[in-house]
Each structure stands twice: as structure tokens, then as C-alpha cells.
Write a structure and sequence with these properties.
By secondary structure, this protein is an all-alpha fold. It folds into two domains: 57 residues; 43 residues.
């Protein structure tokens, strides 16, 4: 197959122009514009895109680390709710103890005033 192609290429007469010269000039100019303008522009834009993708990847890693930290720090919220419930009960119990100790103090003060201990 390669031999066939090489024989075909060698059989082409370089002096024979099958198209007008302007076609070759336009074609060469187009290739030159592609080579000088389009390819560098495409490489520049692809580089910008790749840089942006790397930045997004880095920011996503930072966001993941922050999210894990938030999740770890907020995992104790249900325990805090339990603590608040127990503390509310403790406040109610303390008020009841204060009321009872006040009544007990009055009884003891009355007995002390009368001079009896029982």
C-alpha cells in the first residue's frame, strides 16, 4: 500500500498546475492564517481553560475540607439539645428545692423562736 502511494506521488509532475494560481495563493494564505493566528489562539484559550479547571479543583478541595470541618463541629448539636432539656429540668428542680427549703426555713425559724427543737 505504501509503495503504491509513493509511486503515485513520484508520478506527479510538479510543473503541471491543475488549478489557477489564485487558488493556491488563497489556500496557502488560509493555512498561514491558521498556523499563525488560530493555532496560537486555540492553545492560549485551552491553557486558560485548563488553569481555570485547576483553580476550580483546588477550590472544591478547600470547600470539601471546610464542609467536613463544619459537619464534624455540628455533629454535637443533638447532644446540646439533650443538655438543654436536662438543664431545663434542673432549673425546675432547683426552683422546687428553693420553695421547699424556704418553707422548711420558716418552720425551723418558728421553732427556734419558741425555743423547741422537735
Amino acid at each position: 500500500m505504501m509503495g503504491y502511494i509513493m509511486n503515485y506521488i513520484q508520478g506527479i509532475d510538479p510543473t503541471a498546475m491543475t488549478l489557477p494560481l489564485i487558488v493556491y495563493v488563497i489556500w496557502g494564505g488560509t493555512l498561514l492564517v491558521i498556523l499563525v493566528v488560530i493555532v496560537p489562539l486555540a492553545v492560549f484559550l485551552l491553557h486558560r481553560t485548563l488553569t481555570a479547571a485547576w483553580s476550580i479543583r483546588r477550590y472544591m478541595a478547600d470547600m470539601l475540607a471546610g464542609g467536613v470541618g463544619i459537619a464534624e463541629n455540628t455533629s454535637s448539636i443533638p447532644a446540646l439539645n439533650d443538655t438543654i432539656a436536662v438543664a431545663t429540668d434542673m432549673v425546675n428542680t432547683a426552683k422546687a428545692l428553693e420553695d421547699h427549703s424556704g418553707a422548711l426555713g420558716e418552720v425551723l425559724a418558728q421553732r427556734a423562736a419558741r425555743g423547741t427543737t422537735s
